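Reviewers of the previous submission asked for a worked example of the structure-prediction workflow described in the proposal, so we include one complete record here. The input consisted solely of the amino acid sequence. No template or homolog information was supplied to the procedure at any stage.
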Amino acid sequence: MQRRFNRAGYLLLVAILTLMLAAPAAWAGPRMGMGPGATLTPEQSQQLFDLRQQFLKETEDLRQQLTVKRTELNNLWASANPDEKAIRAKQQEINVLRDKIQNIAISYQAKARKIAPNASFGWGKGGGRGPWGSW
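From that input alone, the workflow returned the following structure tokens.
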């Protein structure tokens, strides 16, 4: 004997499926910032905030240039007949800008560690790939 779901049964099934699909997305994003157990004083929090703002201000031009170069690279790839030399040259320009930003970031991270030496900075458990580290 076949049993059919009524409307409430379908709604319950949809709700369960939605929860099953949405739950992993809640913990799958990147985990930047302080590690577990990091307690900062209000002064440390303010100093780290100010340091972050200085970093963003100092790298603003480089980040804008990087966005422009990436757009130019995308346009080169999107052309009917992509020019390999031009693409390689544009990628090299992007790499130079990324290296400059990374070098600035290293000095700011060293400053942050002086402000809060016991805090853990960077990616949390799994490097942003969910609770187990990889799929």
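DSSP finds four helices and no strands in the chain. We consider this example representative of the routine output the project will generate in years two and three.
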